[in-house]
Design brief:
Elements lengths: L2 H4 L12 E2 L5 H9 L4 E8 L7 E3 L5 H10 L7 E6 L5 H10 L8 E6 L4 H11 L4 E5 L6 H12 L6 E6 L7 H9 L4 E6 L7 H10 L5 E3 L2 H13 L16 H4 L10 E2 L5 H9 L5 E11 L3 E6 L12 H9 L9 E6 L2 H13 L8 E9 L12 H11 L4 E7 L13 H11 L6 E5 L8 H8 L5 E5 L1
Parallel strand pairs: 1-2, 2-4, 4-5, 5-6, 6-7, 7-8, 8-9, 10-11, 11-13, 13-14, 14-15, 16-17
Antiparallel strand pairs: 2-3, 11-12
Length: 468
C-alpha cells in the first residue's frame, strides 16, 4: 500500500510524512505509538544475546517487538519501516512478518542492502511476505551510473513500490542519474537520509525542486521536513531561487501537468524580441537560432540569426546567454531552446553554454535538424548527427536533447509524412542516450505520421514529441 494513499491528509506530499527511528526497546516503541509520527522504524539484526534470532539493536526479539506493536496495541495504525541490517536475518524477518500477516493493516516498508544474489533476495520476499514497499539502499560509488543501472536492473519489474534510500549529500551532483532512475517507473520514489552531516536546506530543496513532491520522503522530521516546510511557508516573502536541473522537464519546472500550457516564443534572436519575451509572464519557453558568422573584428563566432543575411545579427550567443542568465524580471527565469543551424555552431556554441552552467537553473533544450526528413533535398544540409550528440555529450550533457529532421511541405505531392525508416534512423542515434529527448515535428506533416511517431515514442519513456 502506498504511503500517501494511506495517509490521505498528507496532501500527496512526502514532506508531511513523519518517520520515528527510536523504537528499539519496548518502552520507546510505546512512546512512538502514542507520539505524532506516521511511520515507526526499527533496525533488525542478529546478535549474540538474541541467540542468532532476528532482534532489534537493543536486543529485543523481533517477534516480541511485532507482538507489542501489532497485537498488544491492536489500534495502532502507524506504518512500519523494517530496516534489515544484516543479510542473514532477512529470511527470518520475512517469516516473522508473515506470522503476523493477519494483524498487518498498515503499509510495511522493508529496507535492505542490495548484496549477493539479488534474484534470490527478490524471490525470498515475493515468496514469504511480498506485501511491502521495497526500500533498497542506493549507494553511489566511483561509478554512479553503474550503481544506478544495477538498481534499475534489479527492480524494474518489481510488483511492489520501490523507495530508494539515498544520502542527501549525493543528490545534486548525481541528479542526471537519479532523475533518470525516477523516470523509469512511476512506482519509484526516494527516501532521503541526512547522512553523516546535516544536509543544508538548499540540498533538501534540490530534489524537491526537480521532481514531484509525492516521490520524495525524508528520514529526519526535525532536521529535514520542518526546515523545508518553514522555508516554503516563508517563500512568499523571500527570494529563494528554484535550483532546477537544466536537463529537467518544463512541466516540473512550472509545476504544470499539461504541456499545452507551456507557451513558446520563437525566433527570439533580436534585443527587443528577447526583452519582450523575458518580461512576458505568459511566455514559458524561449527559442532562438544560432549560426556562425566570420567577423573581421571579432573572428568566427556563434550569433543569433535565422534569416539571411547573418551579418544583420543583433546579439552573439554569448550576449544572448548573458541576458537570459542575468534577467531580473519577476517573470524570470524562463526555459530556453537553442536551435543550432550548423555543425560548427554546435561545436562553438556548447562551450559558451558550459561557461554559464552554474547559472542554468531552468530547462535547457538543445536542438538541431540532424537527419533528412520529408520533402528535403540535398541542398538542405542537416547538422552532422554523430557530431551533434558527441559535442553535447562531451561539453554539456545536462540538457533535453531535441534532434529533428530537415523538412519541407509539398503542396501538390503525397510525400507529406515521416516514414518508418526515418524513425528507425533517428532511434539508431538516440536509443542509448540517457537525456530526455523531444523530437520536433513539422505540424503539417504529422497527420499521416501518427503511427510512425507512436512507434518511435514507444522505444523509450524518455522520448516525446513537439509539433512546430
Amino acid at each position: 500500500m502506498d504511503l500517501l494513499t494511506y495517509f490521505s491528509d498528507a496532501n500527496n506530499d512526502g514532506v508531511k510524512i513523519r518517520f520515528e527511528q527510536q523504537t528499539s526497546t519496548l518502552d520507546l516503541l510505546q512512546q512512538a505509538i502514542k507520539g505524532p509520527s506516521d511511520v515507526i522504524e526499527v533496525d533488525i539484526q542478529s546478535d549474540v544475546p538474541c541467540a542468532g534470532a532476528a532482534c532489534t539493536s537493543d536486543d529485543v526479539i523481533f517477534r516480541t517487538w511485532l507482538q507489542a506493536c501489532l497485537v498488544d496495541n491492536g489500534e495502532n495504525t502507524k506504518a512500519l519501516k523494517i530496516n534489515v541490517k544484516l543479510p542473514d536475518v532477512l529470511q527470518q524477518t520475512l517469516t516473522i512478518l508473515q506470522e503476523f500477516a493477519n494483524h498487518v493493516k498498515q503499509p510495511v516498508l522493508l529496507n535492505f542492502g542490495v548484496v549477493g544474489d539479488t534474484e534470490v533476495i527478490m524471490d525470498m520476499i515475493n515468496t514469504i511476505f511480498p506485501n511491502v514497499t521495497l526500500v533498497p539502499t542506493l549507494s553511489l560509488g566511483t561509478s554512479p551510473w553503474d550503481d544506478v543501472d544495477r538498481m534499475y536492473d534489479v527492480f524494474q519489474f518489481a510488483s511492489q513500490n520501490v523507495m530508494f534510500s539515498i544520502d542527501a549529500h549525493n543528490i545534486k551532483n548525481n541528479w542526471d542519474k537519479l532523475g533518470w532512475l525516477l523516470d523509469q517507473n512511476n512506482k519509484f520514489s526516494f527516501y532521503i537520509e541526512k547522512g553523516a552531516d546535516d544536509a543544508t536546506v538548499d540540498e533538501l530543496f534540490y530534489v524537491r525542486d526537480n521532481t514531484e513532491v509525492s516521490h520524495v520522503y525524508y528520514s529526519d522530521y526535525a532536521g529535514m521536513n520542518e526546515p523545508i516546510m518553514k522555508a516554503e511557508a516563508e517563500s512568499s516573502s523571500s527570494d529563494r531561487i528554484v535550483d532546477f536541473y537544466s536537463g529537467g522537464d518544463p512541466l516540473d519546472f512550472y509545476r504544470m501537468t499539461d504541456a499545452i500550457n507551456v507557451t513558446w516564443a520563437h525566433r527570439v534572436n533580436g534585443k527587443d524580441q528577447l526583452e519582450a519575451s523575458l518580461s512576458d509572464a505568459a511566455t514559458k519557453m524561449i527559442e532562438a537560432d544560432i549560426k556562425m558568422f566570420n567577423s573581421s573584428e571579432r573572428g568566427y563566432l556563434p550569433v543569433m540569426s535565422h534569416d539571411p543575411p547573418v551579418s544583420n545579427y543583433e546579439l552573439t550567443l554569448q550576449e544572448w546567454l548573458d541576458s537570459i542568465t542575468s534577467c531580473t524580471y519577476s517573470t524570470c527565469p524562463k526555459g530556453v531552446k537553442l536551435d543550432y543551424k550548423s555543425t560548427e555552431a554546435v561545436e562553438h556554441g556548447m562551450p559558451l553554454v558550459l561557461a554559464v552552467a552554474d547559472k542554468l537553473n531552468f530547462p535547457v533544450w538543445v536542438n538541431a535538424d540532424v537527419l533528412q526528413g520529408p520533402n528535403s533535398n540535398p541542398l538542405m544540409r542537416p547538422v552532422d548527427a554523430k557530431l551533434f550528440f558527441d559535442y553535447v555529450d562531451s561539453i554539456y550533457p545536462h540538457v533535453t536533447l531535441s534532434p529533428g529532421w530537415k523538412t519541407a511541405h509539398n503542396p501538390i505531392g503525397d510525400t507529406n509524412y515521416y516514414t518508418i525508416e526515418m524513425m528507425e534512423e533517428m532511434n539508431s542515434f538516440t536509443q542509448s542516450l540517457r537525456q530526455p529527448i523531444t523530437f520536433p515535428a513539422r505540424a503539417s506533416l504529422t497527420h499521416q505520421s501518427i503511427e510512425q511517431f507512436q512507434w518511435l515514442l514507444a522505444q523509450s519513456n524518455r522520448f516525446q514529441t513537439l509539433c512546430t
